[in-house]
Amino acid sequence: DWYLPSQNELNKILENIGPGAASPNTNIFGYNGNYYTSSQFTTNHAWEQYTVYGDKSDKQFVRAVRSF
Q1: At 61, is the secondary structure helix, strand, or coil?
Q2: How much is the pTM?
Q3: Starting from the edge strand earliest in sequence, which strands make up the sheet with 54-55, in order?
Q4: Which of 11, 14, 35, 52 is the most exposed place for a label (fewest CB within 10 A)?
Q5: What is the pLDDT along the chain (68 residues), one digit of tens a residue?
Q6: 46 contact partners, CB below 8 Å, separation of at least 6
């Protein structure tokens, strides 16, 4: 039931509990860098949050979410 969120899902998460969220929810997410999403850009690239895209062989953070 855990999965890697899409670019749109991760954007919504950051809007609601990321660094720019309204108090008291400011950065509950614990944002500390670029995060890969499950949204594919090309065969070798995936969309990242706050960047255009990243090579899948690069080391970046991931943030798994749990479906409910």
Answers
A1: strand
A2: 0.71
A3: 36-42, 45-48, 54-55
A4: 52
A5: 899 999 889 888 888 888 888 889 888 877 777 888 888 888 888 877 764 456 777 777 778 888 87
A6: 36, 37, 38, 39, 40, 53, 54, 56
